[in-house]
Amino acid sequence: MKRVFSGVKPTGHLTLGNYLGAMRQWAAVDQHRADALFCVVDLHALTVEHDPGRVRRLSRQSATLLLAAGLDPELCTVFVQSHVDEHARLSYVLECVATDGEMRRMIQYREKAARERERGGSVRLSLLTYPVLMAADILAYGTDEVPVGDDQAQHVELTRDLAVRFNQRYGQAFVVPRATHPPVAARVMNLQDPTSKMGKSEDVGPGIVYLLDEPDAVRKKVMRAVTDSGRDVAYDRERRPGVANLLEILAACTQGDPRVLAEAYDSYGALKKDTAEAVVETLRPLQARHKELRADPSYVEGVLRDGAERARAMARPVVDAAYRAIGLLPPV
Ligand code: TYM
């Protein structure tokens, strides 16, 4: 059976982008076809200015939302990154095969570092080494596939490079993983600025649909989405990004095809209305389940406790083997 690993970072409330680009696929497909692990990567949330209490709250909320989205602890392993020491243990060893030039070339590092500097803040060293920790997350489990949105492709590519390099220098220790992306909505764009990603870490904005938004808030955000100056509805990501984004969201929520859907509409108003309703219907069961789970925090805690135990047992032998291979003396 294939091993699958993926994660979400608790730096903000989860969005429709996280759901359509990643979580939905994990619940509908990955957990059924593979031996899958899904992780709330809280160590990664410490790489930018953060509030400790908020990270803790968002970690709990993200775990609850993963379950609300349909991840079933009978089928897959759900856990919190900092509960399993192997991630940090392996990250250090991988830092010894990665180079600083490689890190500085990462697009997300460059964007986030620029944003921090613009705000007058300093850039944490952990932001630079972020992709190495992510590689450790993936490689510690002998992962074959990493289901993610488009924005994570470069990080997974780096993970492959590090795995190959380590294996060549020190002997076969890691499986070389590959990224997989959903057929549509691999990059959901901000409704107010359809040339940039709908991201949870950005400031609250009318262009971001959060998974826990009330139906009326969702409707309002979708109805106010920025479209393009053209009149007809056409699917063209380059020249008509606003309309293409709505068509992709609608397609993802209705199991449709954005090109075919474009033919069915002759006004932006009708497209927006149907998209808004499709999003509301898609989020409805998730929100209902979230409400139930929130009322039962000990259930979620139990899932995370079992998940961490299972994850530890899987990662320990892989990380121990990498320690031996790179030359560290086994404990006596
Ligand atoms: P994060 O928390 O930013 O996002 C979690 C998942 O959601 C996807 N995603 C999107 N997909 C489509 N459209 C969007 N607008 C959108 N926004 C987010 C992301 O691609 C991702 O799949 N570095 C990772 C977390 C991570 C990780 C890992 C992932 C750490 N270690 C190991 C996989 C494997 C991140 O920041 O994801």
From TrEMBL:
<feature type="binding site">
    <location>
        <begin position="197"/>
        <end position="201"/>
    </location>
    <ligand>
        <name>ATP</name>
    </ligand>
</feature>
<keyword id="KW-0648">Protein biosynthesis</keyword>
<keyword id="KW-0436">Ligase</keyword>
<feature type="short sequence motif" description="'KMSKS' region">
    <location>
        <begin position="197"/>
        <end position="201"/>
    </location>
</feature>
<dbReference type="InterPro" id="IPR001412">
    <property type="entry name" value="aa-tRNA-synth_I_CS"/>
</dbReference>
<dbReference type="InterPro" id="IPR014729">
    <property type="entry name" value="Rossmann-like_a/b/a_fold"/>
</dbReference>
<dbReference type="InterPro" id="IPR024109">
    <property type="entry name" value="Trp-tRNA-ligase_bac-type"/>
</dbReference>
<comment type="function">
    <text>Catalyzes the attachment of tryptophan to tRNA(Trp).</text>
</comment>
<dbReference type="InterPro" id="IPR002306">
    <property type="entry name" value="Trp-tRNA-ligase"/>
</dbReference>
<dbReference type="GO" id="GO:0005524">
    <property type="term" value="F:ATP binding"/>
</dbReference>
<comment type="subunit">
    <text>Homodimer.</text>
</comment>
<keyword id="KW-0067">ATP-binding</keyword>
<protein>
    <recommendedName>
        <fullName>Tryptophan--tRNA ligase</fullName>
        <ecNumber>6.1.1.2</ecNumber>
    </recommendedName>
</protein>
<feature type="binding site">
    <location>
        <position position="188"/>
    </location>
    <ligand>
        <name>ATP</name>
    </ligand>
</feature>
<keyword id="KW-0963">Cytoplasm</keyword>
<dbReference type="Pfam" id="PF00579">
    <property type="entry name" value="tRNA-synt_1b"/>
</dbReference>
<keyword id="KW-0030">Aminoacyl-tRNA synthetase</keyword>
<feature type="binding site">
    <location>
        <begin position="17"/>
        <end position="18"/>
    </location>
    <ligand>
        <name>ATP</name>
    </ligand>
</feature>
<feature type="binding site">
    <location>
        <begin position="149"/>
        <end position="151"/>
    </location>
    <ligand>
        <name>ATP</name>
    </ligand>
</feature>
<comment type="similarity">
    <text>Belongs to the class-I aminoacyl-tRNA synthetase family.</text>
</comment>
<dbReference type="InterPro" id="IPR050203">
    <property type="entry name" value="Trp-tRNA_synthetase"/>
</dbReference>
<feature type="short sequence motif" description="'HIGH' region">
    <location>
        <begin position="10"/>
        <end position="18"/>
    </location>
</feature>
<feature type="binding site">
    <location>
        <position position="137"/>
    </location>
    <ligand>
        <name>L-tryptophan</name>
    </ligand>
</feature>
<dbReference type="GO" id="GO:0004830">
    <property type="term" value="F:tryptophan-tRNA ligase activity"/>
</dbReference>
<dbReference type="GO" id="GO:0006436">
    <property type="term" value="P:tryptophanyl-tRNA aminoacylation"/>
</dbReference>
<dbReference type="InterPro" id="IPR002305">
    <property type="entry name" value="aa-tRNA-synth_Ic"/>
</dbReference>
<feature type="binding site">
    <location>
        <begin position="9"/>
        <end position="11"/>
    </location>
    <ligand>
        <name>ATP</name>
    </ligand>
</feature>
<keyword id="KW-0547">Nucleotide-binding</keyword>
<dbReference type="GO" id="GO:0005829">
    <property type="term" value="C:cytosol"/>
</dbReference>
